[in-house]
Specification:
- By secondary structure, this protein is of the alpha+beta class.
- The chain has one domain.
- About 20% of the residues lie in helices and about 35% in strands.
- The strands form three sheets. The protein has a five-stranded antiparallel beta sheet, with no helix packed on it.
- A hairpin with a 2-residue loop joins β7 and β8.
- The longest helix is centred in the N-terminal third of the chain and has 30 residues.
- It is globular, with a radius of gyration of 23 Å.
């Protein structure tokens, strides 16, 4: 049986057609991702969710926060057990403070009007499913990421997220109501500089936990 040769000659005009096509596809994918992120951020429903941030580094040397959500198990609502890595739908709602409430999970989307998260099955047993959501990264300026090392066990760490049609984006991470970026040494240096210019005013370090550990939506929190 003769095998056809699909090799493209370096001098072939089709080489440039293929190159331009791949460039268009690549830019289209990047544009769609950016558009989807912006769309969710603008129209998505806001939620607050307890999290554990971890500083990691990608293969390209870019710093980012790996956001782990400890509340990753819930009751399985279907009669048929889910398969490992299967895409499922986690039913969610909000309490009066905007904190996320996990209602259960199913292989079927909830009724129209109810919110949910797309997730992947990582474990199952005794009618309890363990899941992992797809929005687990938070980009941050490397100079403002070191505040993560000062987070204590008693601190309240909350991710502010927005959800739309099962997809989510992380808008910010708050430690005791303060943005994680404000807890960095870079922010502390800025505060000290401002304090030096206003010596008549009492200086306060931005790393001091001036808020209580109650779970309060960061955007509604007011710092005196």
């Amino acid at each position: 049986m003769k095998v056809m040769n699909f090799r493209i000659s370096p001098d072939s005009k089709y080489r440039w057609v293929l190159f331009i096509f791949l460039v268009i596809v690549q830019f289209s994918v990047c544009g769609y991702i950016a558009w989807r992120w912006h769309n969710i951020q603008v129209d998505g429903i806001p939620y607050q969710w307890k999290c554990i941030p971890r500083l990691e580094q990608s293969a390209f040397g870019t710093d980012y926060i790996r956001v782990v959500f400890p509340e990753d198990t819930t009751q399985w609502l279907d009669d048929t057990a889910p398969r490992l890595h299967e895409t499922i739908y986690v039913y969610i709602s909000r309490d009066d403070k905007g904190v996320i409430q996990i209602q259960g999970a199913s292989a079927h989307k909830p009724p129209v009007g109810e919110d949910y998260m797309n997730a992947s099955v990582v474990g199952y047993g005794d009618n309890i499913v363990q899941f992992m959501v797809g929005f687990g990264r938070y980009r941050i300026d490397p100079a403002k990421a070191d505040g993560i090392y000062d987070i204590g066990v008693s601190d309240s760490v909350i991710a502010s997220i927005r959800m739309k049609k099962g997809e989510g984006v992380i808008e910010g991470i708050f430690v005791n109501g303060m943005p994680l970026e404000f807890c960095s040494s870079e922010a502390e240096k800025t505060a000290e500089t401002l304090a030096g210019k206003n010596a008549d005013k009492p200086a306060a370090s931005v790393k001091t936990h001036i808020l209580g550990s109650a779970m309060v939506p960061p955007k509604q929190q007011k710092v005196e």
